[in-house]
């Protein structure tokens, strides 16, 4: 099945204006794209993406670690074959690799390359926790891997499945 997406000049002007305006410091979002089935003309998927600034402290283990960075999220609303009038579910692709931190006592640099993919039922709001490993840079993850918790709050347009807002924080599990 081929899918085509064209952007009109007015849509480009709106997107350019939105890009020019400064987004809130907690998140930035690209304009959602709705993909349609060319044979039926029905919407089959809406794709939204956002970049979220997160921070927090993970306590415990050998030392507390102050973590911060950006998380990239891609949200895809998928319609059901049984009811094509509204989206049925959301798939989330959450890339946590932009998070790093510093140990409070050793000053060691901690990093992660974690990524989470999840399927969620579409609702107007959703809270989602992601446990992720982080470790001392240069150790390859073992044996120094620790666990942090990323907490996200999502809001969606339930008619289109577009992600309308997201915020996040980091904490101990």
List keywords for this structure.
173 residues, mainly beta, 9-stranded antiparallel sheet, 9 strands, elongated, disordered N terminus
Strand percentage lies at: over 45%
- Radius of gyration computed on alpha carbons: 19 Å
Number of alpha- plus pi-helical segments: 1
Number of domains: 1
Quaternary class: single chain
The low-confidence parts are 1-28
Overall 3D geometry?
elongated
Mean pLDDT: 79
Helicity range? under 10%
User: Separation of termini?
Assistant: 43 Å
Helix-strand sequence: HEEEEEEEEE
Specify the structural class: mainly beta
The description of the largest β-sheet is:
9 strands, antiparallel
Secondary structure: number of strands: 9
Tell me what you see in this structure.
With about 170 residues, the protein is mainly β. The protein has one domain. Helix content is about 5%, strand content about 60%. It contains one helix and nine strands, in the order αβββββββββ. The longest helix is centred in the first third of the chain and has 12 residues. The N terminus is likely disordered.
Give the structure's gist in a few sentences.
This protein has 173 residues and is mainly beta. Helix content is 7%, strand content 58%.
Topology at a glance:
Blueprint (H helix, E strand, L loop, with lengths): L8 H12 L6 E10 L6 E16 L6 E15 L7 E17 L5 E3 L3 E7 L3 E12 L9 E11 L6 E9 L2
